[in-house]
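Class, study these two lines:
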Amino acid sequence: MELAAVGKRYGRGGRWILRGVDLAAGPGELVRIAGANGSGKSTLLRLAAGIERPTAGRVVRPGATAYVPERFPPALPFDAASYLLRTGRVHGLPAAVARRRAGEWLDRFGVADRAGTPLSRLSKGTCQKVAVVQALLAEPRVLLLDEAWTGLDPQARAVLDEAAVERAARGGTVLFVDHDPARLAGVTGAVYRVGADGGLRPDGQPAPGTAPGTAAGVDTESAAEMEIEVDVPDGTPLPPGLPGAPRATPLAGTAVRLTVPAAQSDALLRRLLLGRPAVRVLAVRRGEGERCDRSAR
């Protein structure tokens, strides 16, 4: 998923909402887009989804893309099951596969009993669950969540958290916006912030022209590294596109040491433990060799 020099404004003389945006997110990455209200976060996700076209620059999507908006329009002439069947078919799924996946996800979100209910009669929260399901059943290469947790009950929010992590663990790219700063904090591989100038930069990096040392929220340990030692059964290669692009050092037998920036270590661990092939985590230590943890799968 790549945005290169992307800009967006409405009308020839309109102000630039986004300008000069560069973003590259690979398979397996969970990326948070932050910024003040009205800064252009939703516009960025709609551009990434192909719902809107950029005024400048280009957007490259590696494959199927699915988008969940903050508000789902309930006034559609379908019941939940029929709507999901149609959206599944739009994504290119065979009807039987679309029905099966829709049923599985509706059940996981606890609303399987509403499958035959017209969308116009569903509550806002249930409609939002249907909106999430239509994206997840496609198993997209790129999943875009624009305040998708809004209106969901706590249990459903937890299910969506799990689903986002699972999609990344299976090689998908997930970009999300959410008002809760703790959302997926332990597994997010990168955070980018849309600034007042319409630009996008890593969170904590000052805008051009800002005096050094004045950026809020800079982590003084962001340059630190973590070493994660894992054992891969039968010497199976680790999947490509791991969060943080870790350096791999072979150890004895089938063990491998992965060195990754500390800020990305949680995302890498989650990917290793949830993804394939299954690995055993032997040790987690700071780059200088201090042992932090030991666990096994």
